[in-house]
């Protein structure tokens, strides 16, 4: 075939141009350390990279949510730890107060201490996070959830709980509302409350009260009255449901509940047994404070005082249980956050290595390619200069 | 002896002409479109030699193949250049949607994790603003490319028209020259160049006439050159006046847009229908899908003022352009009721004198509509609603582009961070709620399937758009490279016939130079012989 001179030059230039294009491409790859510059370089790989990017962005969000939840639950945990310590100390003080050898002065000291604890518990219940949001306010977290109005504490928060996403289809509650932690308590032993009649004159006092068979307890109101060394229990319609001889420290059992009294009742003394009513832990504490402020004057008063004290101790101990249970649940959540965090960490590592497979440049391969291309460009240039010097005109002189 | 002199002289003349031809070849060795010429020698009946013709080396078959190859290549090359620009635009970390989309949803999660934080809310508003401007920027880039298509069409058409006019003139000159027995080699070269130029701009076929003139037709059969006359192509605005120019011919003009293929014009028309419009529609679908789903969820929540959420993104609407032939006064506004139901094609809304009908602009398939077209009861079909105002005349029609311009309308509707409805509906009436129920749901909008009839999420649609565009760019690059290889093969085939090889010319130069010297020697010898004879007679 005839080859025209200009075609030969064009051919060489075109080949060199093609190799230079390849060089530019490899240079781009090496300088960006990425195999693909645009989606056109590998549409499927590019799409896979984008999907992995999204998964990684999701993992970042989950991680940042885990951090937020850890911080909030950590703050809540410490407020609850403090609260449970306070309630434990209050229980100890209540037991001390019932000790008959307490002088009015020592009771006064106990009162002062209890008052201190009351304030501390209030401040724990109104604990805030680093940004000034209240931890126990539900979703009303911009204003203090617990305020003292007159003699009672009201809860201004709500029962909403905030969920944070910490994984695909996985959320965690980042706090507990104050209503469930501090307000959700009841009077007496949680099932019923026993109160001494104000007209009692004997020294009989309640020492224990418990439910032995919850299925028989009907939630009614009963009255335990004493007469002639015997006791009788009547229901609200005055029907006798149980009766027997009274001995100090003996038990009175009816409708699945069991009461223990000590001391000697006067004839006509009575105790009423009524279903527990809702009573927050602050009210119990305040009742305790008012009891220690007003110690009994005589033995009959002491019996009533002790009965009341027994009830309050039970209330505070259940309040303590609620706080501790919540604290346990927070601890469990914190540990599942740790699990989630380490799982996300593993996932993130494997996603990143996948992404690197998809997107990153194989440097060894690229530099080999670079060498090959450089060599072939040099060969082309050499060939071009050789061929160009070949011309018959050179010999026509 | 006189024979000897006249043969010698004829040889001198012939070789001098041959040498002229060789030097002309050498001079034009690098002239694009030049065809090698050669003096054809013929022995003369009266003795001696003569140049019977200056032969032009060319091959009509290869030339016509090269025209086709040129059209195919420049069509693909035009497409490839813009496709790779769209590809870079969508793939780029700073110009694409991925990064702002991701940042936006990260900011939504930020509000979900701390719904009362003003800074988290402010961050959401500003990332949403960025997302909106990215959509707008992409739309304006694509619109800009559409504008470039119009400009390039204008340029190509004017090149074609100039070339066609010149070809017609050349046809006249060539016919005249051939009639008088000359071979107008340079004119033929010029004409081939001009035809090549037209084929670069549009696909053509050529037909040679017996008088040497050449007729040029578009691939669709419209005559561009007939003998000594040429017909100009022109550009007319699209029937629906949406700014797109279309190719037409004649007076009154006949739209031949659909019959045009190949060349730069073919590539530009392909770009418009296969890349720009689909990309704008897909982008619009992503924008509308996101805005609609996000707004719907946002309306379910409660903001910091205790009120139900208002529109987070500004409401989007489609466009309906009236046909230039409409005689009525009707105008149509297009609402987007369910983006997931809107197809990727445009629609035509037509009034037949009593009823309005909606059909697919590409396939022509009819879509049934409900409603009566009033503001209270608009026509509803395929996820769109149409409200007709004014009165339409029979035959009036509108081009409905539900999604083409939507991305450009994407913007955030609220400016007050407190108005982000992060709380769930239970917080209605509460100010400053720390509830995050709705924000949690909002953060999942990117992955909820709202597009393509509820099968594709916004994030997935974005990935699909980028990889589909990448695919188009990759494929067209491969096809362009293949076409280039074929074109170069044809060009080198043609070159091997028509191109000048300097070594060959050098050899010819030597050959003719030697023959010229020999002929001169013949004349000189004849003179010597004549002198000898004279001397012989004078001495006697």
| Number of E strands of chain A | 12
- What share of residues of chain A is helical? 40-55%
Distance between the termini of chain A: 28 Å
Biggest interface, CB < 8 A: A-B, 49 and 65 residues
Please give the largest β-sheet of chain B.
8 strands, antiparallel
Strand content of chain A: 15-25%
Could you explain the architecture of this structure?
The complex is a heterodimer of chains A (397) and B (540). With 397 residues, chain A is α+β, with helices and mostly antiparallel strands. Chain A is 53% helix and 16% strand. Chain A has seven helices and twelve strands. Chain A has helices spanning 5-32, 43-98, 104-125, 178-183, 281-293, 299-359, 363-388; strands at residues 146-149, 152-155, 163-167, 170-173, 192-196, 205-211, 222-227, 230-235, 240-245, 251-254, 257-262, 270-275. In chain A, strands 5-12-7-8-9 form a five-stranded antiparallel sheet. In chain A, strands 6-11-10 form a three-stranded antiparallel sheet. Chain A has a two-stranded antiparallel sheet with strand order 1-2. Chain B is of the alpha+beta class and 540 residues long. Chain B has nine helices and 19 strands. In chain B, the strands form five sheets. Chain B has an eight-stranded antiparallel sheet, with no helix packed on it. In chain B, helix 2 (60-91) packs parallel to helix 6 (263-298), helix 3 packs antiparallel against helix 4 (118-179) and helix 4 (118-179) packs antiparallel against helix 6. The chains are: A alpha+beta (397), B alpha+beta (540). At the A-B interface, helix 1, helix 2 and strand 3 of A face helix 2, helix 3, helix 7, helix 8 and helix 9 of B.
Protein traits:
heterodimer, A: 397 residues, alpha+beta, five-stranded antiparallel β-sheet, three-stranded antiparallel β-sheet, 7 helices, 12 strands, rod-shaped, B: 540 residues, eight-stranded antiparallel β-sheet, four-stranded antiparallel β-sheet, 9 helices, 51% helix
What's the short story on this structure?
Chain A is built from seven helices and twelve strands. With 397 residues, chain A is of the alpha+beta class. In chain A, helix 2 runs antiparallel to helix 3, helix 2 runs antiparallel to helix 6 and helix 5 runs antiparallel to helix 6.
